[in-house]
Design brief:
Layout lengths: L5 E5 L6 E5 H4 L5 E2 L5 E2 L1 E5 L13 H8 L1
Antiparallel strand pairs: 1-2, 1-5, 3-4
The protein binds zinc ion.
Length: 67
């Protein structure tokens, strides 16, 4: 793994933010968060306001990315 380089993905059904590995996000949709939930949108850094800084960051993704 090349460090903790993740982007923020959003589950459009729940609005919850999930962490998506950047190499996954660079590929074709659908994208999977590190917790296994598919996301419909990827938007910026996981560490940023649309990820960890959002209203509802996924607790599983947060735990898995931080290790
Ligand atoms: Zn998640």
């Amino acid at each position: 793994m090349a460090g903790s380089d993740h982007v923020a993905g959003r589950d459009q059904e729940t609005g919850r933010a999930h962490a998506v590995p950047r190499d996954v996000a660079d590929g074709p949709a659908p994208w999977l968060g590190v917790c296994g939930v598919p996301v419909g949108v990827v938007q910026g850094s996981w560490a940023g306001p649309r990820g960890l800084g959002s209203a509802d960051p996924c607790p599983d993704c947060r735990r898995l990315v931080l290790g």
